[in-house]
């Protein structure tokens, strides 16, 4: 594996998916398997009560510099300032919104949130650590 790290100045071309947060294991940051009462991490075996689940940002983007296109995924709390809230707080807002609107897909991000993220990111230039 190449361990060279660098910075890349690039513009966001598109958002690759509409799910910006995921239930994350606090030990290894892998996606948790949730049911109505429990969570389970398939990677490290961590388990707990669903009400204690923590969430983490995962923003998949297509970006372009002056010469190339890249698919990149940005994880974690570095996105807190851009979203204005932690992933846990955004998840609570999404749950409340979905409950009020009658949405049954608990993983669904409201369309208005997807539009807001697209407006805030697409066409903007960022510096990415790669």
From TrEMBL:
Gene3D superfamilies: Nucleic acid-binding proteins. One of its GO terms (molecular function) is zinc ion binding. Keywords: DNA-binding, Metal-binding, Zinc, Zinc-finger. GO terms for biological process: negative regulation of intrinsic apoptotic signaling pathway in response to DNA damage. GO terms for cellular component: cytoplasm; nucleus. It comes from the Eukaryota. InterPro entries: DDIAS, Euk_RPA1_DBD_C, NA-bd_OB-fold, Rep_factor-A_C. Residues 9-95 form the Replication factor A C-terminal domain. Belongs to the replication factor A protein 1 family. This is DDIAS protein. The gene is Ddias.
């Amino acid at each position: 594996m190449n361990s060279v790290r660098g910075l890349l100045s690039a513009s966001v071309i598109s958002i690759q998916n509409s799910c910006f947060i995921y239930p994350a294991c606090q030990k290894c940051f892998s996606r948790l398997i949730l049911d109505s009462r429990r969570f389970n991490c398939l990677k490290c075996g961590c388990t707990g009560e669903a009400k204690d689940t923590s969430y983490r940002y995962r923003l998949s983007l297509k970006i372009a510099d002056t010469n190339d296109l890249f698919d990149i995924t940005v994880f974690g709390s570095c996105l807190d300032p851009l979203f204005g809230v932690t992933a846990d707080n955004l998840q609570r807002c999404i749950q409340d919104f979905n409950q009020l609107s009658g949405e049954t897909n608990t993983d669904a991000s409201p369309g208005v949130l997807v539009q807001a993220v697209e407006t805030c990111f697409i066409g903007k230039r960022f510096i990415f650590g790669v």
